[in-house]
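User: Watch each token:
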Amino acid sequence: MESSIHITVYNLRNTQGHVLLSVFKSEDGFPNNPAKAVKLVKSKITGDKVEIVLDNMPVGDYAISVMHDENDNGKMDTGAFGIPKEGYGASNDAKAVLGPPSYKDAHFDHQQSTSLKIKMKYF
């Protein structure tokens, strides 16, 4: 069975670059290795939020990570001590504590049409 996942990414600080969204089926690669994601989306920013619809997603357990790639280089830019210079977020608004959010905190069960809101966070 398949259905849609509707994602609203909000709290974007500007319209530079793109929002990069990665969908993971397991903790392998989550949240920083998009090569391990089952789906990738690059979305243009036109305001302080972005709406993304993932159609035909099989039911199951997923976690989503997002980043605001302000300079469009395709990766998270970090500063001292690995602190992100660009925005980041995860499903369930999973917290990053001394490292990236965990799959355990970000995963959700997609059975029918699912709606998620993810707050973009900045340091």
Observations:
- Residues 5 and 45 are 19 Å apart (CA to CA).
- The chain has one domain: 2-119.
